[in-house]
Write a structure and sequence with these properties.
The structure is a single chain. The chain has about 300 residues and is α/β, with parallel strands linked by helices. It has two domains: about 5-165, Rossmann fold (3-Layer(aba) Sandwich), CATH 3.40.50; about 170-290, N-(1-d-carboxylethyl)-l-norvaline Dehydrogenase, domain 2, CATH 1.10.1040.10. It contains 13 helices and eight strands. The protein has helices spanning about 15-25, 45-50, 60-65, 75-90, 105-110, 130, 145-155, 165-195, 200-215, 215-245, 250-265, 270, 280-290, and strands at about 5-10, 30-35, 55, 70-75, 95-100, 120-125, 135-140, 155-160. Strands 3-2-1-4-5-6-7-8 form an eight-stranded mixed beta sheet, with helices on both faces. β2, α2 and β3 (about 55) form a beta-alpha-beta unit. α9 (about 200-215) runs antiparallel to α10 and α10 (about 215-245) crosses α13 (about 280-290).
């Protein structure tokens, strides 16, 4: 590992945190490529990120690929495929670990650009700003185990979840349905609660529910009772939408909940379970996976 040359494409939150850590552990400069690094003068926040660790800024992606044995790509989703195309054109061997938040199909298209199985599908499962190199990473692909061993030697928290490119991305995407949805629910809820002057009361009520159940039991309760109460809950959310519209407040998440509850009710799920709460959430999920249809 001490002879490996590491390179990072993208110098955002992930690139700066990982680059600093890799340089510190290996004792060697990390190669960096990002258009922001080539600006003169560099933005102040970029100079702050560069302070205190060994690095070498390269003018472009092909130059970085030519110098490195392990290339980590951590760019915004819209930039991921253009970056990988440049990596693949310059590729002569090593490991390309792609950490951008793109779909499984996009990761598979990216892997197909390489003429050898050097592409590793990677995903970051928590906040790098909060945990740095301790942020959980998952990897997938034919050489994912090799990548995990390298990351482990650098004291990252890494696991392999499969040999098929796209598996890590799928985990990230499914997790994002919940986490990004929860983020938006928090915002929409607190805007409404603030307008009504009851923010702390709403916070306290929701917090007490989570505390009383715990995460998995709460999921079990909500999903199993969804089967018999989705129709009634749709009616309630219709009233919530009316309240938000009267207050001229955002209602995107509330409208989506109303539509989803309506769609579940239309499948006949309540009749299927004979108006009785199912014994586990897997039964409900299996039924709705077969009967709900995407738009």
């Amino acid at each position: 590992m001490t002879t490996l040359r590491w390179g990072l494409i993208g110098f955002g939150e992930v690139g700066s945190a990982f680059g600093r850590h890799i340089a510190r552990v290996t004792g060697k400069p990390v190669c960096l490529a990002d258009p922001l690094l080539n600006q003169n003068p560099q933005p102040g926040y970029i100079r702050d990120r560069l302070a205190g660790f060994e690095f070498r800024v390269l003018p472009d992606i092909p130059s970085l690929v030519d110098r490195c044995d392990v290339v980590i790509c951590a760019v915004p989703p819209s930039s991921a495929m253009p970056a990988v195309e440049l990596i693949a054109k310059a590729w002569s061997g090593g490991l390309c670990i792609e950490l951008s938040s793109t779909s499984p199909n996009e990761k598979q298209r990216a892997a197909a650009l390489f003429d050898r199985p050097d592409f590793v599908d990677g995903a970051i499962l928590d906040s790098v700003a909060r945990q740095g190199e301790k942020t959980p990473l998952v990897l997938a692909g034919p050489r994912a185990e090799e990548a995990r061993e390298l990351f482990d030697k650098l004291h990252f928290r890494t696991s392999v979840i499969g040999q098929d490119v796209g598996a890590a991305s799928a985990l990230k995407m499914c997790r994002s349905i919940f986490m990004k949805g929860l983020e938006c629910l928090y915002v929409e809820t607190l805007i409404a609660a603030g307008k009504c002057g009851i923010s702390e009361l709403v916070f306290g009520s929701i917090q007490e529910t989570f505390r009383a159940y715990g995460f998995r039991p709460l999921a079990e309760m909500l999903v199993t009772t969804h089967a018999i109460h989705c129709g009634r809950r749709a009616d309630e959310m219709d009233e919530v939408v009316s309240m938000l519209e009267d207050l001229r407040l955002p209602s995107t998440m509330t409208k989506a909940s109303y539509k989803f509850l309506q769609a579940s009710s239309a499948t006949g799920v309540t009749r299927h379970f004979a108006c009785s709460v199912p014994s586990n959430l897997e039964e409900v999920v299996a039924y709705l996976a077969d009967h709900q249809r995407g738009e």
